[in-house]
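quick one: succinic acid bound model?
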Amino acid sequence: MSNFSIPSDILVIGTGGTIAGLKTVSGGGYQAGQVPIATLLTQINTKFPIKNMQLSNIDSCDLSESLLSKLGVQVRMGLADPEVMGIVITHGTDTMEETATFLEFVCGGSSRKFGKKVVLTGAMLPSDHPEADGPQNLSAAIEFAGKEDGRAGIWAVMGSKPIPGLALVKGHSSDTNAFFEETLPDDWIQVSNDLPIPPDNQWPWVEIITSHSGARPETITFLKGHGVQGIVLAGTGAGTVHHNLAPALERFIEAGGAVVRASRIGRGCISGTLANGRLTKALGTACLNPAKARIALQLALFASTQSGANPLSWQDYFARMVGLPGFR
Ligand code: SIN
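yep, here:
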């Protein structure tokens, strides 16, 4: 008898979200993260043998770094499991793009090496809504995860549409067709080596500061005084920064803090340099919006603290992750 098994199972990991939501008994709202993944799976038909695991059952607005660490470890185990041909993760839509970014950088290389897909899915309507979109999304995600089409990697399936994980953006707060695909730069190269997963108490502290009319620098001074390690600037337009914020951010960089520049617009790419010449030492975040850039900066900062034969700075890691030229 052969020791080799042919991968045939889809591992479905439940984390919560509206896909597992239920209407509240009083009032018109609903509560995310109520129905177990095992129950959601009884509502669909699939030809694939399913293994399921309930990792959490939360509203994804409460997503924690600790949960991301646990998810990363489970996904790596699933990718290495010879019986698993693909992984589906049910997730709240509100922070799905942060989890997709995390998985791209810590599991994307392994998923391509093992030739398997990791597919996030969720829903905009709760599971007991008459037009619930969850069952259709879950079925489509499982079918896509089990399809051998050479597209191994991190993905999301929403509205039956596959979107590469790093390009996933939630662009509408309530529409059932809420997700779109950001255009990744032509020269973006998938990082082939997975970055280390920070243990849950070792995630670097990174905050997002928004530039806006009447911006004031006190928050930056406060965060610096309390030990924040990195700041993502959610800048205006192409990542520009108010003249009241730029000097405080520059002082933060001089004191060893990490600053990257995204745009609060949430669409489009941010280049390395700014037309108005401010904040020249802050790297642009390319196609990553502020929430995704925050995850990337945390992973880059953590990776730079890990000793290795060829230690890199956080700037080297970050520039490689977002595909900035000149750092490969
Ligand atoms: C959540 O993100 O958990 C709630 C909202 C949603 O899933 O659409």
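The radius of gyration is 20 Å.
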